[in-house]
Amino acid sequence: MLVNVSYNDKKITKKIDEEVGNPFKLKQRWAMGGIGSPKMEITSSSLEIRNLLILDNNLDSCNIELRPKGIILRFRSLLETFALVIPFYKLSIYKGDIGIYSVYRDHHFVKVKADTKAVQKFFKKLMDYKADNLPTSIDDL
After folding, report:
1. Which of 54, 60, 49, 76 has its CA nearest to residue 113?
2. β-pair type (80-87, 92-95)
3. Could you tell me the pTM of the whole model?
4. Is CATH 3.20.20.70 what the domain over 2-134 is classified as, yes or no?
5. End-to-end CA, the chain
6. Is 80 buried (19+), middle (13-18) or exposed (0-12) by CB count in 10 A?
7. Residues 62-104: tens digit of each pLDDT
8. Are strands 61-67 and 2-4 parallel, antiparallel or unpaired?
9. Which long-range contacts (CB under 8 A, 24 or more apart) does 24-28 make?
10. Burial (Cβ within 10 Å: 0-12, 13-18, ≥19) of residue 1
11. What one-character-per-residue DSSP string does 74-122 give?
12. Among residues 45, 43, 18, 52, which one has the least CA distance to residue 105?
């Protein structure tokens, strides 16, 4: 779900919370070592996201917030903030070329440059959390 989150709209906030869960409590954030990623440069994206990003001449960047049932990928364009809300069951992450991670949800995708240790550490934390919190599959029984 790609939404504009620039303004405080209770309906949009409720939809986001239903899809990926409420934000972590402060104690949980401390225990996890933080839930937000560093600023990451966007190298490519799907058509709908690209059309939003080319509206201004700023550097295309984003960050990811970890939630109990998914992630929120946020980016800015023309003084507006947009969020790609991705629950874990629709999240696909691929590590392609050296230092490039691809984050997919249905027909939306964003490829980010992971050229620092902090970004690579965050993606490892994200994949570990997703693996630990997925429902039990039939094969595991």
Report:
1. 60
2. unpaired
3. 0.90
4. no
5. 32
6. middle
7. 999 999 999 999 999 988 999 999 999 999 999 888 889 999 9
8. unpaired
9. 24/66, 24/67, 24/68
10. middle
11. EEEETTEEEEEEEEGGG-EEEE-STTEEEEEETTEEEEEE--SHHHHHH
12. 45
Which residue has 């109990």 as its token pair?
A: 68
Read off the tokens for 113. Answer: 């440059």
Q: What is the pLDDT of residues 15-50, one digit of tens each?
A: 999 999 999 999 999 999 999 999 999 999 999 999
Ordered DSSP codes for 21-65: -SPPPHHHHHHHT-SBPPPEEEEEE-HHHHHHHTTS-S--EEEEE
CB proximity list for 110: less than 8 A, separation 6 or greater: 42, 44, 45, 46, 49, 62, 73, 75, 84, 102, 103
Write out the two tokens for 1: 């779900």
Per the DSSP assignment, residues forming a β-bridge with 132 are none
- Side chain identity at 20, as an amino acid letter? V
The two three-digit tokens of residue 21, written as one number? 């869960």
d(CA 61, CA 47): 16
Domains in the chain: boundaries? 2-134
